[in-house]
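Now read this:
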Amino acid sequence: FTELSFEDRLTLLVERQWIDKEDRALRTRLTFSGLKQTACIEDIDYRSARGFKRAQIEQLARCEWVRYHQNCIISGPTGVGKSFIGCALAQKACREGYRSLYFYEPKLLRQLQIAQADGSLVNLLKKIARVDLLLIDDWGISKVHDTQHRQLLEILEDRQGSGSTLVTTQFPVTKWHELISDPTVADAIVDRLVHSAHRIELEGESMRRKKQGDK
């Protein structure tokens, strides 16, 4: 290091400082995201036939859809890796400098209910509205009251044109109206989530069951 010229040493120090700053910022974004799984794009298994192509994942991994505030829907039966792929895409968004936020749908609904009761609902909605990518895991898995569906619609409305939403779900989009009792709210939610959304439709047997069988 001492053998380098002053200019080279200065350049090296500046580069190290910049890398350290970027690493700290990434750690902050990953901690804030609260991702359920430590998943990354590089670890996605393409060997199992699950109905999607590597090219599709690689396109989404470029995060252009997040940049342009588009949505993504990952559907398929339980255990096929929806949450892993969703978390991997959210983690990649963090690496690209975007802020992600993960919610398991039942926990999101509970947080909305608690926030409404203690007066912090406005702050929670603002927090969700500000993130670049909102990941809602297991959409439709829990019974939702009309009030909660309207709150979910408000979240999607706040993000319209300003943020991306990624949803994982066991239910195909054609069944979503059956999950929402109010047809007007159902139409609005489906319109805001599905219109021009990137779609990954997984199929096949449970990855968890397959791994247990391989042991």
